[in-house]
């Protein structure tokens, strides 16, 4: 029986967390869960599957189509373009999907419960440039408490990236041997490969690698195919 369940989106942070979990809990002790929430960029799901295979970790894909039905954000609604600027009223970017992490972690907890796993691992970070409120330490701690009470289960939510900068995360990925897997990750909000290099997500990623002094394996893959 595995010990830890990693929420794997196919992005840089969750992939780093997958390798963190393998290091912390051991090979053969880790599984991944990926959510198909109607994201416009289906490439994320392909990336997550490749990364799980690369890491030899069993992956479960769970469908959640409610966010697409709700609409109103640039990640699931094809009629909305990603804006680099914050919404003046909410002070959040229009890539914010309200409730997303809360729902994801609740379903992940249900899966962990069924499989007898007591550790959930998620790549949320308080330092995330967007300041998504569902990525903050206080939110995660409150949710962990709610899940423990609501399921009567000694579940722990691990957030190894919570207070790390993007550069710290890149260095951590290198130290964990996760760089080859990062070549298969997807970050670009425009859903293209090679990444567009201009959207907020691409710029943040590039800045992290630059500050860490490490070449991005994803960019290198397209430079030297
Ligand atoms: Zn981009």
Folded structure, characterized:
- Helix content is 43%, strand content 10%.
- With 225 residues, it is α/β, with parallel strands linked by helices.
- It has a single domain (4-223), classed as HUPs (Rossmann fold, 3-Layer(aba) Sandwich).
- It has a five-stranded parallel beta sheet, with helices on both faces.
- The chain is globular and about 45 Å long.
- Bound molecules: zinc ion.
- The site of zinc ion has 9 residues, from helix 8.
Oligomer: single chain
Q: What structural category characterises the helix and strand content?
A: alpha/beta
Radius of gyration: 17 Å
- Could you tell me the strand content as a percent range? 5-15%
How are the strands ordered across the major sheet?
3-2-1-4-5
How would you sum up this structure in a few lines?
The chain is globular, with a radius of gyration of 17 Å. The chain has a single domain, classed as HUPs (Rossmann fold). Strands 3-2-1-4-5 form a five-stranded parallel β-sheet, with helices on both faces.
Features:
Rossmann fold, 9 helices, 225 residues, alpha/beta, binds zinc ion, 5-stranded parallel sheet
List the helices and strands and how they pair.
Elements: E1 4-7, H1 12-25, E2 30-36, H2 43-54, E3 59-63, H3 66-70, H4 100-115, E4 119-121, H5 137-151, E5 156-158, H6 166-175, H7 179-182, H8 200-212, H9 217-223
Parallel strand pairs: 1-2, 1-4, 2-3, 4-5
The chain binds zinc ion (ZN).
Zinc ion binds at residues 188-190, 195-196, 198-199, 201-202.
